[in-house]
Structures are given as C-alpha cells and as structure tokens.
Amino acid sequence: MIYVCIPTHNEAATVGVLMWKVRKVLGEIDRPFTIVVHDDASTDDTPQVLARYKGMLPLTVIRSEQRLGYGRSVEVLLRHVQAEAPYPKRDCAVVMQADFTEDPKDMVPLVKLVEGGADIVAGCVSGGEGEPPKGTKMVRWVTDKLLKRVLKGAPVSDPLGGLRAYRVIVLKKALRERAESLITSDGWAANVELLGKLAPHARRVAEAPLALRYDLQMRPSRFRPVRTIWALARLGSSLWAAPPSVEAA
C-alpha cells in the first residue's frame, strides 16, 4: 500500500485537483494507495473540499483545530501511517506538497525504488519549470556557501527537499516508544531534521531527480527565507550519525 501524505493549510483551490492527479498517476502504474491529508487548521474552504472527496477517493482526513505548522503536520501524517499500515515492511509513505510545486508523476520513481529495496528515497532537485522565487534561491546559496556544516554527512545530495518516500518499518523503528516530537523545526529545516532522524534506521537510502514546477504554483509562496536560514543554522552538524550509503536512480 502507498500512503500519499499531504500536509495542507488553506489549499482549497489546489488540494482536490492534486488528489485526482495522484489517483491518475498511481492508477496508471496499478498500485494500491490511500491519501492521508492533514488539514492544519485551515480557515478557507479546505474542509468542505476534502469532505466532498471522501466518497470518491480512498481518503483519510486528519484535522487540527490549532495551527501546528509544516513540520508537526508531517509528523502527524507519518505517525498515523505507521500506526495504520498493515504491512510495514512492504508499505510506504510518500510526503508531498499541496501547492503543485511537486508533480505527482515524480512519485513513480520514488515508489519503484522502494519496491526495489530502498528504505528511504529522496527527490533531489535537478531543475524545474518556471523561475524559482528569489528567497528560495537565496536560501540554497546560503546553505551551499555558509551552512555546509549542517548538511555535511547527509545521505542524499539534496536534504532540503520534502518529496520523499519512506518504508513504513523505518517510521516504526524511529517512532517506537518515542513520546516526544520527532520533528522540532519547520519548513526546509524540518525536512533536514526528519531525514537525520530516520536515516539511521534505514538499510538503503536512494535518491531520484526532481523537477519543481514553480510555473504551476497556484498561490503566493509562504516561504520565509530568513526564518528558514536561522532554523537550518540551529540544527547543527551532529544530525548525521553514520548514515547508510546512498544510491542514485
């Protein structure tokens, strides 16, 4: 089973279309799936949109009445999947955004690499359509030039990205008897922190090229570059504890 995990906040204009595209992509490769959406205290029509799709798609909606933020929203989704998945050694969770910067088609190589034996597969940016926001380019420049110590030792070439597939058994091992939060940061820092927490429990880590679609983004970016840089700097370099070797798609 593939659990497609979508954290969302005020995405009424995009989340329904995204779910249909997920259904089309996974239907074409004939894989069983369920979509798990965390509605992070949306104040627009997101709850109503999700309610309409419950009878049409294999869909589970988890809602928080108070805003948690991206990092904690992802953790809510992953905790739900590891508790519900019946075959943790076979099932996987794919995390993707609801704003269309990530193409559902890019899930396919991630899923196939998990089926081939990888425990974590990261989508690593290798290009894209449209012009990336200035803030995005700035943060990537700063991490490359000034924050190398934070990312040094990461098991993939692009630990900032959020489109990833995780074998459920890895989630179970990382979350076993862990009452405290797995993810304490937000945004890109949450993606880096999550990889650092899960990689020691994986036997194989792989990566697949990812082309972001800034030309399809249907709302103003919520990306906060200065806040992101500070969050990354606070992670430090002790995050990477002997990660497994990485293979490329």
> Terminal Cα separation, in Å?
22 Å
Number of domains: 1
Rg, rounded, reads: 17 Å
- CATH level-two architecture: Alpha-Beta Complex
Alpha plus pi helix count: 9
CATH superfamily: Spore Coat Polysaccharide Biosynthesis Protein SpsA, Chain A
The succession of helices and strands, N to C, reads EHEHEHEHEHHEHHEHE
CATH class: Alpha Beta
User: Quaternary state, please?
Assistant: single chain
Give the overall pLDDT as a whole number.
Answer: 86
Task: Indicate the low-confidence ranges by residue numbers.
Answer: none
Task: Return the structural class.
Answer: alpha/beta
- Major sheet: arrangement of strands: 3-2-1-4-6-5-7-8
The name of the CATH topology is Spore Coat Polysaccharide Biosynthesis Protein SpsA, Chain A
Please report the total strand number as a whole number.
8
Helicity range: 25-40%
Structure description:
With 249 residues, the protein is α/β, with parallel strands linked by helices. The protein has one domain: Spore Coat Polysaccharide Biosynthesis Protein SpsA, Chain A. The protein is built from nine helices and eight strands. The protein has helices at residues 15-28, 46-53, 70-84, 107-115, 134-145, 148-151, 168-175, 187-198, 225-235, and strands at residues 2-8, 33-40, 59-64, 92-95, 120-129, 164-167, 205-213, 246-248. An eight-stranded mixed β-sheet has the order 3-2-1-4-6-5-7-8, sandwiched between helices. Strand 7 (205-213), helix 9 and strand 8 form a beta-alpha-beta unit. Helix 3 packs across helix 7 (168-175), helix 5 (134-145) packs parallel to helix 9 (225-235) and helix 8 runs parallel beside helix 9 (225-235). The longest helix is centred in the first third of the chain and has 15 residues, at 70-84. The two termini are 22 Å apart.
